[in-house]
Design brief:
The protein is mostly helical. The chain has 12 helices and 3 strands; from the N terminus they run ααβααββαααααααα. Strands 1-3-2 form a 3-stranded antiparallel beta sheet. The longest helix has 23 residues.
């Protein structure tokens, strides 16, 4: 195994900072806007008590402290429907409910707005947006949907997208002779084999995700690269589509090795065929979606 491959499997990925830029905090007034009418009961009525007191929970979404935890919890509540469309979100109320500062609330709302989950407008305030406005390709939203009421739809839709993206990527990648990337693909297969023998599912999954990300990069299509987050999210969340990538097995390892070999020999048809076999769903397998993993 190359030193580079070992490093990729052990080094922590840099987390997105998610911090607001100069002047952006003022977009979310801390006091409720005079024009923001309060519809129905407070946004938090009926919410799980454990969602409060963010500061006392473990590391939050993507390892970004209080800000990341609040993004994670508000995002899950919106996606699950606990905070329905057009529900007003009052920053002061959020700060009191989750025991966080106004800065944390403003940064969190800014991130949720970038994901299409909320909107902030003068004299209207911050409100939850309808599903049609959400960025459904955002990895966080994919994960939140995977653990919410839409998990069955998310499972099916992820599988359909992967069937569209990855066989094409494998075929295109076979026409690019980048030896450095092909070597890294081989490294990932080697890591997966070693992890399988050791019963190390975590390392297997990391190498698996890296393999698919590298393959899409090798395809040489920038638009496909922008969709690589879908594949990564599908591999990282439990309850995703039932494919050969779901669990460490000798069959899954063999399919990955076949893909790598086809790419190394420049055989686009073999690469595409091997990828389709890897992604073949086993309809007879029924799976139970577990609770969201700790971050």
């Amino acid at each position: 195994m190359s030193t580079l491959a070992h490093t990729m499997m052990t080094a922590a990925r840099p987390a997105e900072s998610g911090l607001a830029g100069p002047g952006e905090l003022d977009r979310y007034p801390y006091a409720e806007s005079p024009g923001a009418d309060r519809v129905g009961p407070p946004s938090w009525d009926g919410a799980d008590v454990e969602l409060g007191r963010v500061g006392r929970r473990t590391a939050g979404s993507r390892g970004r402290g209080l800000h990341g935890q609040l993004v994670q919890q508000l995002g899950q509540m919106i996606v699950s429907g606990d905070l329905g469309a057009d529900r007003p979100l009052v920053p002061e109320e959020i700060g009191q409910r989750f025991e966080v500062s106004r800065t944390v609330v403003r940064e969190s709302l800014r991130v949720l707005e970038a994901k299409g989950l909320v909107s902030a407008r003068p004299n209207v305030g911050t409100r939850v947006r309808p599903v049609s406005d959400w960025n459904l390709l955002d990895p966080d939203i994919i994960e939140w949907r995977a653990f919410g009421p839409q998990r069955d739809d998310q499972r099916r839709e992820l599988g359909e997208l992967r069937w569209t993206i990855e066989p094409l990527a494998a075929r295109l990648a076979a026409g690019h002779g980048r030896e450095d990337v092909q070597q890294r693909l081989g490294d990932m297969v080697e890591i997966m084999g070693h992890s399988l023998a050791q019963g190390d599912g975590v390392t297997f999954s990391r190498a698996d995700a890296e393999f698919h990300s590298l393959l899409i990069q090798l395809a040489g299509n920038r638009m496909l690269e922008h969709l690589s987050g879908i594949v990564s999210a599908a591999l990282q969340v439990s309850g995703g589509p039932v494919t050969g990538c779901d669990r460490p097995t000798e069959v899954s390892l063999a399919h990955h090795a076949r893909i790598a070999d086809a790419l190394a020999t420049g055989d686009p048809h073999a690469a595409e065929s091997a990828m389709r076999q890897l992604l073949t769903a086993h309809s007879e397998v029924e799976r139970v979606v577990p609770a969201p993993r700790e971050h």
